[in-house]
Amino acid sequence: MSLYDHYSIGYDADFQTDAFKSVDIIGVESEREIPCDTCPMAAECESKMLDCVAARNWFHKGNFEDANIGRLRRACK
Predict the structure, then answer these.
(1) How many domains are contained in the chain?
(2) Domain annotation covers residue 1
(3) What residues form DSSP beta bridges with 51?
C-alpha cells in the first residue's frame, strides 16, 4: 500500500476497502442536461455571472422549457 492510499480521504486502511461505496445526490435530480450547454450566450453569462429563466428553473426543478433559454438574464444570486 502506498502512502497516498494510506492517507487518502475515504480510504479505510484497517479494512483495505473504500469507506464511500456510493454518493448521495443532494437536491433535485435533473431530467435534462444544463441549458447553458447549447446556449450561444453561455460564455458571456459565465464571464458576467448571469443566469436566465431556463438556468434558474434547471437549478431548482431539474427541468426547463426550451423557449426560456437566454430569456430574462440577470446577475446570479
Answers:
(1) 1
(2) no
(3) 74
What confidence tens digit (pLDDT) does each residue in 20-52 have?
Answer: 566 666 666 778 899 999 999 999 999 999 999
Closest to 51 in 3D by CA, of 65, 67, 66, 68: 68
As given in the structure block, the three cell numbers for residue 48 are 458576467
Cα–Cα dist 61/63, whole Å: 6
Q: Which segments of 1-77 are extended strands (E)?
A: 11-12, 17-18, 50-51, 74-75
Q: Please give the Cα distance from 56 to 70 (Å, whole number).
A: 11
In a domain, 51, yes or no: yes
